[in-house]
Automatic annotation (TrEMBL):
Molecular function GO labels: glutathione dehydrogenase (ascorbate) activity; glutathione transferase activity
Organism expressing this protein natively: Clitoria ternatea
Pfam families: GST_N_2
The protein's name: GST N-terminal domain-containing protein
The GST N-terminal domain, residue ranges: 57-135
Amino acid sequence: MAAMSSARVQVSACAFSATVNRLRSRPNVVVPFRKSLRVSMSSVPPSQPLEVIVKASVTTPNRLGDCPFCQRVLLTLEEKHLPYDPKFVDLTNKPEWFVKINPEGKVPVLKFDEKWVPDSDVITQTLEEKYPSPPLVIPPEKATVGSKIFSTFIGFLKSKDPNDGTEQALLSELSSFNDYLKENGPFVNGKEISAADLSLGPKLYHLEIALVHYKKWLVPDSLTSLKSYMKDIFSRESFIKTRAQPHDVIEGWRPKVED
Ligand SMILES: N[C@@H](CCC(=O)N[C@@H](CS)C(=O)NCC(=O)O)C(=O)O
C-alpha cells in the first residue's frame, strides 16, 4: 500500500457481513435496512480509521474526484461520525495494487475486517449494520423515491435532440420528487436525513453543475421543495467536506456529452 495516495482524516475496521453480499447485484438504489441483521452486529466504534478507496480529482492531488458513489460513502461515514482514511485513485491510470484489490476496477471500495468491499450499496448497508447510530435507515416504501432522477439526468445531458423527450422525462421525475418532498419532507424520510438523501444528494449536485454548464439548464424555481432540499443538503458540513470540485464534475461528464 506504500504507493497509495493517502490523506489521513479519521476512522475503523469492521466485519463484513456475508448476508449483505447478495445486495451487490442490485442497481444503485437505497436498500431498506433489515432489522434482523441489526441485532447480530456490533456497534462498537472503529478503533482505527476505516480505509476507503475513492476516485481522485483529476486536477488536485489528494482530493475526491467526481464520483457520486464515493461521495455517498464518505457522506455516510461523516454523518455517522466514523473516522476514515481515504486513498485517492486515478481512474485513468489505475495502480496495480488497486486492481488487485478490486479487479472490476471500480470505486468506492472500503475495508471491513481486512476484507475489501466494493459497491456503495453494499458498503453503506454494512456501515448501517455495523454502526447503527445515528440511524440512516429508510423504510422499504421510501427506498426508491427519486431513484430515476440520475438516469433521466444522464439521458438529457447526453441528448443532442431538444425534442426527443429527455428534458421532459427529467422534469417529470424532478416534479414528482418535488411533490413527494412537499408532502413528506423536508428529507425523504421526513424530519431526519437518511441513507436515501445521502445517495441522492451527490447525484443532484452533479445534475446541477453539469446541466448549467453543458445545457444552460437550471432546476425550475417553481420546484420550491426540491430547491430547498438541494440547498439544505449541499450546505451540510458533511457535504461541503466531501463534495467534488465543480470543474472535476464538468470534466468528468465531458466524454458522455461529447460522445
Ligand atoms: N454501483 C457502483 C458504481 C460505482 C462506479 O460506477 N464507480 C465509477 C466512478 S463514479 C468507477 O469506478 N468507474 C470505473 C472507471 O471509470 O474505470 C457503486 O454504487 O459503487
